[in-house]
Design a protein that fits this description.
Length: 276
Amino acid sequence: MDTKSEAQDTPQATMPEGTQAQTPTLTGQYLYCIIHEPNTGIVWDLKGVNSGVVTSIHYRDLAIVSSVTPMVRYRLSRENVISHELVIEKVMSKGYTVLPIRFGTVAKSQDVVTKKLLESRYWEFEGLIKKLEGKREVGVRIFCEEKYLFDQLLKNNPHIAKLRDEIAKKPPNETHSDRVKIGQMVQEALKVQKKNYQEMFLKALKDLSTDHRLNDTLGDKMLFNGAFLIDSKKEPDFSKQVEELESRVGKDFQFKYVQLTPPFNFVNIVVHLEEE
């Protein structure tokens, strides 16, 4: 099992792609996450998007982690997203329960953040932090070689294997419609096969989590792409369950386990400050 922590392998934040070549005269606040922190004098010693020094904006016992930024619209590029997520991961690593804010959120001023976000949605954020306290997100991605999947498909669908063998005995110019038909049959069978694997993997893991999300799989080799919200104290048990599942399904499946990340799949605070 390939086990990693996202924060450990994340590059340092760099100048994001997609910003304007010349720095605009107007500046604002780039927002990363919301935390419980009554200490207004906290120093983060971090740099974030556009190399801005990370600070925080406070209201009562809540704070929004932020940095000064030009008033630009940030492009959704790998470099920009890494800069954004790195700050959130570093804050979480200091022991905070974090509420991630949607990538690219920029406010005109600290006053706007305080009045239009922290003050107006105070009880909402307090409730979310309480709900997520002591919990972390982990990710499980499972891959399999295409040849193995196809061999299993033929084994479980003998009618497809029979049609394939019949087509192979005929000249190519006589089998066009049959090849189209078998191609459609294989695609449908692969969808059913992938769904069955996903249900099996999810059933084996979900009972140790308080919530889960199934994300889209990428490419033909990825069978499962799941995010699980777990109690931090139960992470060793969850990790053991992943190892046991990997051992049970065998060497034809490759597991990638991403440990203890911010709850990006379960909280993504969206704010609308464009008119403020």
